[in-house]
Amino acid sequence: TINPSISSLFRHKTHAGNHLRRINSGLWKLKAVVMGEAVASGDDQLIFPNHDFAQQAHVPNFQTYLEMYKRSIGDPAGFWSEMASEFYWKKKWGQQVFSENLDITKGDVNIQWFKGGITNICYNCLDRNIELGNGDKIAIHWEGNEPGVDDSLTYNQLLERVSQLANYLKENGVKKGDSVIIYLPMLMELPISMLACARIGAVHSVVFAGFSAESLEQRILDCKPKIVITCNAIKRGTKVINLKDIVDSALSESSQNGVNVGLCLTYANESAMKREVTKWQEERDVWWQDVVPKHSTKCDVEWVDGEDPLFLLYTSGSTGKPKGVLHTTGGYMIYTAATFKYAFDYKPSDIYWCTADCGWITGHSYVAYGPLLNGATVLVYEGVPNYPNPGRCWDIVDKYKVTIFYTAPTLVRSLMRDGNEYVTRYSRKSLRVLGSVGEPINPSAWRWFYNVVGDSRCPISDTWWQTETGGFMITPLPGAWPQKPGSATFPFFGVQPVIVDEKGKELEGECSGYLCVKASWPGAFRTLFGDHERYETTYFSAFPGYYFSGDGCSRDKDGYYWLTGRVDDVINVSGHRIGTAEVESALVLHPKCAEAAVVGIDHEVKGQCIYAFVTPVEGVEYSDDLKKSLVLSVRTNIGAFAAPEKIHWAPGLPKTRSGKIMRRILRKIASRQLDELGDISTLADPNVVDQLIALADS
Ligand code: ATP
Ligand code: MG
């Protein structure tokens, strides 16, 4: 059977915009299409949406997408106004829906959406959904680190909790525009704190509760918060982490450096640590449970302008000094709500689980705001995904009947390495959409996620976006078009990606180069906190007129976008520019390779050569034969020019706390510049560095 929605896809012709021309020129050539089955042919393998899924989807076919996309770039003001009208605005935005200047040669970079509109994102997440009749719907299911420990809050209850904290913050002098640092693990108190700040117009800055005292101090010094919200300790897996000690040291250091925070609101997480044994400073520290519940469960909303700041979030620091990315209210609200709804094909009956921590942008946009704006039921999980065993995720999926599961390639690869039995012993019948974010997902990991986890039934939304972009930029809309494993596919509404060469020339058709974005979108960040100049030089000066993402990308003959990794990581071998993602995917394709990371090192003849760190699958022995067959896998899948010069065994890889491979450190190890490793304290597990050094010549 030929999928009828697909055949209409090929007939549709349109002439608006480069992007549309590109996809038209390619996609239509496709021939035989088997419904719901994969048609294999190298990286052109297309995986078609199941017919029933497509029929019920918000965007049921490519033609509908094209019509909406065309309108979104032809008339952004009209398109986004319509989306915005679904939410509550105390006062409608001004005549001009947006204004922008992305071209530094023409003056300051400036992006504004819904200026003059008066609203509140907390009101739209909670009060509005309650008015729509969802007061008794579960807003948050909370699953604790220990199996069997759980809790939940309805929309009514969540509003009450948020209001109590908001009243407490107000009583303690937190006003509109003040910053508040939130340093909490994945307890319900984390989204509650974010929403409470938003309710009173305070600017939250969530710091991932795995960051060190120095990192926390740096952020305190930068944004000078009125108050720090934290808890005494966390349990992650079997480990207890004394959070309060870290906060104490950050607060005392920062006060010596001129920023004195007078109030530290501390949630007593008694399951991890008793109150009595927590170190305490009477004049500064207050137990959450002693003060917050005494406050009224009603709190008036502080109405704010569409362009008033909502939050600050420091990027993870995979590269250099953290940047305080600033997002404002109106555009971010509309953009996270719309991207969530379309990219996950969200329906009110869904149970949604995103494994990201609220300390990252993914947790902001797609644990808290996007889902709650849509009135969704969100699962918040406190623990680590493989505790007490690698089946935990699927145990949770079955327990709550999770329908949408959104995670990162690093987790997919690690679960794949642990074997299928941990997955297949659970039903997973409830799942209908899967998602991936954070790094390019290797096609082999994609297939495993699709075939084993999703039983070849659930489309995968491989969402490319950044802290800076606020929400999804390039992403599949499940049901609307065929997927290619490892490709983020096509741009979201309103997004105009372009691929440029070194000189900033826009490339057409099949190409590869630097990924930029032309024109603003509502979720774009507006500045780097306190450093607009760094904002302009980092993102808008390399290619004037464009937002430069820092990522490399290629577009295939069918118009699909493929992210190839950060351009800083691109390797140039004898004039061939090779993306790290491509080589790593070829290595991971090898059945004995669990994970791989490649870097470039200097080479006398070739300029650079490829140096690969490889983690074999559990139980596989290191051997020269295995090295040879790994190199062969790259030669046959990419070409001889990309063959790694050296394979370095890696029991583990250095990763950021959000799970991304830190190639900066691997480059130093590969070139044996061991005294120049730099700061390794932000690694999830700094010990892997010593292990790698020890294995350097094996
Ligand atoms: P920093 O900017 O501080 O170095 P970071 O870039 O890792 O940290 P994020 O904003 O969380 O911080 O991550 C965005 C980056 O993650 C993107 O620029 C891209 O390199 C990578 N990325 C995210 N999603 C995808 C995806 N679906 N496919 C490929 N790469 C992705
Ligand atoms: Mg980045």
Automatic annotation (TrEMBL):
Ligase recorded as keyword: yes
Classification lineage: Eukaryota, Viridiplantae, Streptophyta, Embryophyta, Tracheophyta
Domain AMP-dependent synthetase/ligase positions: 134-519
Domain Acetyl-coenzyme A synthetase N-terminal, residue spans: 65-125
GO MF annotations in UniProt: acetate-CoA ligase activity; AMP binding; ATP binding
Pathway the protein contributes to: Phytoalexin biosynthesis; 3,4',5-trihydroxystilbene biosynthesis; 3,4',5-trihydroxystilbene from trans-4-coumarate: step 1/2
Name by which UniProt lists this protein: Acetyl-coenzyme A synthetase
Keywords: ATP-binding, Ligase, Nucleotide-binding, Phenylpropanoid metabolism
